[in-house]
Write a structure and sequence with these properties.
InterPro entries: CheY-like_superfamily, NreC/VraR/RcsB-like_REC, Sig_transdc_resp-reg_receiver, Tscrpt_reg_LuxR_C, WalR-like. Keywords: DNA-binding, Phosphoprotein, Transcription, Transcription regulation. There is one protein chain. It contains 12 helices and 6 strands. The chain has helices at about 10-20, 35-45, 60-75, 90-95, 110, 115-125, 135-140, 145-150, 155-165, 170-175, 180-195, 205-215; strands spanning about 1-5, 25-30, 50, 80-85, 105, 130.
């Protein structure tokens, strides 16, 4: 894949550049602030942007704001956000933008697990989603739809949590040790219990995840 990196910590940035190159990805640019990230994204329009949350000049939310702008201006570019903390408001906006695909949010501790990081990158690059389980748990804590969610069985909640992390039905089946047909039945039950009828132009899967995250 063609990748752009945005990370102000030089050691981590260079380590990621080397890792991605070793995995056969083309790193088009590696920058240290949100403004430069937008410039190089406009120039190269990569397959995926990997960005930190807090970068110069204020070290608050420059990376996240750049990620949201990239999602809006270049919807075909995937965005994988790396963060030391869970920024709830922006994380919910990320998954709520577009069709819910080509986006990921990982805590930096997860980056140390190289396989998890590369898997997330591959899923985002392929048009899917990849959310750190801890990010999902934190977002769930703010949901305002507990009445609807209370109708779900424990297994249905397990399936919905994996959906929120960006897993496909096949992946959920493997993770929960159930058949894919069982996953499909649970997914359909989730749609029914959350009152999500089939509607042209809308993905019920994305709407279910948004309901789960309370966006």
């Amino acid at each position: 894949m063609r990748v752009i990196l945005a990370e102000d910590a030089t050691l981590l940035r260079e380590g990621l550049v080397r890792l991605l190159a070793e995995e056969g990805h083309e790193v088009l640019a590696a920058v240290g602030d949100g403004e430069k990230l937008l410039e190089v994204t406009a120039e190269h329009q990569p397959d995926v942007v990997v960005t930190d949350v807090r970068m110069p000049p204020t070290h608050t939310d420059e990376g996240l704001r750049a990620a949201l702008e990239i999602r809006e201006r270049w919807p075909d570019t995937g965005v994988l956000v790396l963060s030391q903390y869970v920024e709830k408001r922006y994380a919910a906006k990320l998954i709520g933008g577009g069709d819910g695909g080509r986006v990921g949010y990982l805590l930096k501790d997860r980056v140390a697990q190289v396989g998890d990081f590369l898997d997330a990158l591959d899923r985002v690059g392929a048009g899917g989603a990849a959310f750190d389980p801890e990010v999902v748990r934190r977002l769930v804590a703010r949901t305002s739809h507990e009445d609807a969610l209370a109708r779900l069985t424990p297994r249905e909640r397990d399936v919905l949590e994996k959906m929120a992390q960006g897993h496909t039905n096949a992946s959920i089946a493997t993770l929960l040790y159930i058949s894919q047909s069982a996953v499909e039945k649970h997914v359909n039950a989730i749609f029914d219990k959350l009152d999500l009828p089939q509607a042209k132009g809308y993905s019920r899967r994305v709407l279910a995840v948004l309901r789960y995250l309370g966006s």
